[in-house]
Design brief:
The complex is a heterodimer of chains A (122) and B (113). Helices cover 0% and strands 51% of the residues of chain A. Chain A contains no helices and eleven strands. Chain A is globular, with a radius of gyration of 14 Å. In chain A, 42% of the residues are buried. Helices cover 0% and strands 51% of the residues of chain B. Chain B contains no helices and 13 strands. In chain B, the strands form three sheets. In chain B, strands 2, 6, 7, 8, 11, 12 and 13 form a seven-stranded mixed β-sheet that branches. Classes of the chains: A mainly beta (122), B mainly beta (113). The interface between A and B is medium-sized, with 24 and 21 residues.
Chain lengths: 122, 113
């Protein structure tokens, strides 16, 4: 079955960077895009971007462009999301999610990781 | 960007009664070449990751109870819980995936009356 296991809690200071991992199993890693979605405390869901583990590239929401990088490691079936220059309003749960479909492009997040809490505080 | 607007922000429904959540997109999200609406619905419970309920506006994800149904086309969509159960207390979000960036509605909190 599809499983996405994320790294644990991170506590960072403003201005620092964080790298969250998402290890996939139960399917062919390179066939499905991985999305990153975050949810700040008391707030809604926010899409950050997506990456093709198969090498077709990545797409980032404009809000995060320049601060976010998504990379994949096909040797370990892991996707990483790095966010730099952290601010207090980056405090949130960060979720990776596998796309629904093994099509050429991406569609919607269908299978979700358990989430990684990132806290930014001085 | 396509803006997704949900209503109401919250609703309280008696157990066994119907709950209806509306979602409106700022642009048409029906792709004419395949006649599919690029809309999904998610359920988020406290302390849990989102759960995918509905995709293509009306297709139910495997394992989702059939009391959950999605409808609508173009710009106006609805999620209906036909007979609310205690375990359905959650926040529900619609999302369009017609064009990037993928965007979510603001969420609708469903509670028991």
């Amino acid at each position: 079955q599809v499983q996405l296991v994320q790294s644990g809690v991170e506590v960072k200071k403003p201005g620092a960077s964080v790298k969250v991992s998402c290890k996939a199993s139960g399917y062919t890693f390179t066939d499905y895009y991985i999305h990153w979605v975050r949810q700040a405390p008391g707030q809604g869901l926010e899409w950050m971007g997506t990456i093709s583990p198969g090498g077709a590239g990545s797409s980032y929401a404009e809000k995060f462009r320049g601060r976010v990088t998504m990379i994949r490691d096909t040797s370990t079936n892991t996707v990483y999301m790095e966010l730099t220059n952290l601010r207090s309003d980056d405090t949130a749960f960060y979720y990776c999610a596998r796309d629904c479909c093994d099509t050429r492009g991406y569609n919607f997040p269908a299978y979700w990781g358990q989430g990684s809490l990132v806290t930014v505080s001085s | 960007d396509i803006v997704m607007t949900q209503s109401p922000d919250s609703l309280a429904v008696s157990l066994g009664e119907r709950a209806t959540i509306n979602c409106k997109s700022s642009q048409n999200i029906l792709y004419s070449s395949n006649n599919k609406n690029y809309l999904a619905w998610y359920q988020v419970k406290p302390g849990q990751p989102p759960k995918t309920l509905i995709f293509w506006a009306s297709a139910r994800e495997s394992g989702v109870p059939d009391r959950f149904s999605g409808s609508g086309s173009g710009t106006d969509f609805t999620l209906t819980i036909s007979s609310l159960q205690a375990e359905d207390v959650a926040v529900y979000y619609c999302q369009q995936y017609y064009s990037p960036p993928l965007t979510f509605g603001g969420g609708t909190k469903v509670e028991i009356k």
